[in-house]
Amino acid sequence: DHHNVQILLSGVMLLLTMQTPTARRGVLAGLAAAAHLAISLEGLPGVVLFAAIMAFEWIVTSRAAARDRFVAYMGSLAYCAILLQFVTRGPDGILQRWCDGLSQPYLAAIAVAGIGCAAIGWFDRRRPFSMPMRVGAIGGVALLAGGAMLAIAPQCARGPFGTLDPLVVQYWYRNVREGLPVWNRIDALFAFAVAPLAIGLVGTVGAWWSTRHAELRRLWLILLAAQTGTSVLALLVLRTGSTAHLFALPGLA
Fold first, then answer.
1. What's the rounded Cα separation, in Å, for the pair 185 and 170?
2. pTM for the complete prediction?
3. Terminal alpha carbon distance of the chain
4. pLDDT for position 99
5. How far apart are CA 188 and CA 149, in angstroms?
6. Three-state secondary structure of the chain
7. What is the rounded CA–CA span in Å between residue 148 and residue 104?
């Protein structure tokens, strides 16, 4: 159903992250991330993962282009997420507090993160941060964003389905396999879900290890980070494995 578009958007985000960093590519990646969230909240871990990859590249390299891409990504994500939410769900989508869908608490967190990262970029352009300062600034913005979400909807700290009635959890949620960890049942589907992840990671690590070309090593490393993050998520939630399988394809090849 909606997963096909989200898998495609994840591929677009990976492509833009692997290309040479520019602010324009950050804006486009932020738009793809916002569209991902507008479809369903399932995209949130991936959106955060790519923010972390972009932030990490800036932290390690201190390159202005990496900083501009990260700041542009966060700003575009905040603006486009709020805009798409209003266009597709109207005022209720901005004002309501749903833990299992994009709504006020998540939008507030994204907005705080976008504004905070814009401030980081502004200060860094005037006086470049040291590596500890970059880590501290981004970590501080992340804590503020999380705090904003919990201040508005503390019940969402229990997860997107934390507010379900216990009866619904017992007789429905725990029987929907696609939302459960892969080890919930060891069978052919378990092997189908896990084998490509394991082989793909081995292939990607091998490719990164064997190449001495600096730019190729960067590309394989970004792919490895994206693979690792989505693979962990796929183990925890079976239905997210499709995106992890997409990212595993180069390593599998």
1. 17
2. 0.93
3. 27
4. 87
5. 39
6. CCHHHHHHHHHHHHHHHHCCCCHHHHHHHHHHHHHHHHHCHHHHHHHHHHHHHHHHHHHHHCCHHHHHHHHHHHHHHHHHHHHHHHHHHHHHHHHCCCCCCCCHHHHHHHHHHHHHHHHHHHHHHHCCCCHHHHHHHHHHHHHHHHHHHHHHCHHHHHCCCCCCCHHHHHHCHHHCHHHCCHHHCCCHHHHHHHHHHHHHHHHHHHHHHHCCCHHHHHHHHHHHHHHHHHHHHHHHCHHHHHHHHHHHHHHHC
7. 10
Residue partners of 51: CB distance under 8 A and separation at least 6: 70, 73, 74, 77, 113
Angstrom distances, CA of residue 108 to CA of 49, 80, 112, 167:
19, 13, 6, 31
Question: What's the one-letter identity of residue 44?
Answer: L
Which are the contacts of 49, defined by CB distance < 8 A and separation ≥ 6?
225, 226, 229, 230
Each residue's pLDDT expressed in tens, for the chain with a length of 253 residues = 788 999 999 999 999 999 999 999 999 999 999 999 999 998 999 999 999 999 999 999 999 999 999 999 999 999 999 999 999 999 988 999 888 889 999 999 999 999 999 999 999 999 999 999 999 999 999 999 999 999 999 998 888 877 788 898 888 888 888 888 888 888 888 998 999 999 999 999 999 999 999 999 999 999 999 999 999 999 998 888 999 999 999 999 9
Distance, CA of 41 to chain centre: 11
